[in-house]
Structures are given as structure tokens and as C-alpha cells.
Amino acid sequence: MPEMGFVRGLITVVTLATFLGICWWAYRPSSRARFEADGWLAFDDDESARLGAGAAGDDRKSMRRALAAAGEGER
Question: What string of H, E and C letters represents the secondary structure of 13-56?
Fold first, then answer.
């Protein structure tokens, strides 16, 4: 059975690798448009909520596509 210090060190390394992986995923340039669109979801007007979940989801998808297209044009 491995020593407790080895197990704790292994857990630390796995946790650090997970944290760095999440940071890489969140800050890579290809994710910017998606997170930009998600950040604006809180400011959506109530009209999309009245139209129903399907329409609101379609509206958000179109907003994400537009922001993604705008983000690709800036590069």
C-alpha cells in the first residue's frame, strides 16, 4: 500500500492539472465568442422568455452564431 505522503502528492498533482486544464479551456481564443454570448444572457429582454423555451433557445443560438462570426472577423 502506498504511503500517505505519496497519495497526497498525487492528489495535489491531479488537482493542479485539472485547474490548469480548466484555465486553458476557459481562456483559449476559440472559446471567447461563446463565453461573450453567455455573458450577455443575463441582459436578455423578457420578450424571449414570453415566447417560450424553444424560441428563447433559438434566439440565444442565433446570438452566439452572430458573436462567433464577429469574433472570427476580428482576427
Answer: HHHHHHHHHHHHHHHCHHHHHHHHHHHCHHHCCCHHHHHCHHHH
Tens-place pLDDT, residues 21-38: 999 998 898 888 888 888
Helix (H) or strand (E) holding 2: none
Q: What is the pLDDT of residues 1-16, one digit of tens each?
A: 679 999 999 999 999 9
| Structural domain total, the chain | 1
Number of residues that make up the chain: 75
Containing structural domain, residue 56: 4-74
